[in-house]
Design a protein that fits this description.
single chain, Aspartate Aminotransferase, domain 1, 2 domains, 6-stranded antiparallel β-sheet, 47% helix, elongated
Length: 186
Amino acid sequence: MADPAALTERQAAWLATLREGLERDTGRSVAEWAEIARACPETKHRARLAWLKAEHGLGQNRASVILDAAFPAAATDASPGDTLWSDPAARAVFEAARTVILTLPDVVVGQRKSFTAFSRNVQFAAMRPAGSGLILGLAVDQSAHPALGPATRASWSERLKAEARIGSAEEVAALAEVVRQAWALS
């Protein structure tokens, strides 16, 4: 599911509860379920998820925990952000924004398939590539800064209420205070 170092305390507690519930409700440990998953005739992640759901009646989260245990190399890439941020111009903007965000204490960075998330207690920011720049989603009202508009990205946290399109590393500094506001609210 996720690298434990990339989880907030709240996320780690949720994951532990999910694992405990799986064992309590099914009578099988995660390791036992991992053995079952390795016998799955499917080879692709989504097909394996569907198989666990159909054949064993598991929900999405439980099936994901099992597959993460059964196929850890497939669940994590050595550097998933490298693929997402492969465009050099977008990567430069990303690195500038990431540097600003990481000046704040207790930030946890979580790499997702289509975006990079930033959390403290809860997610307060996310970035996804957009051409040669990025879109920054923030957990603040769009009125917090003139560069912000309403959030339109459904696949990241519903907490992110505002977005800004950033086209250069120089534009990042102008948003540093509103990033701090989002962080403070998390």
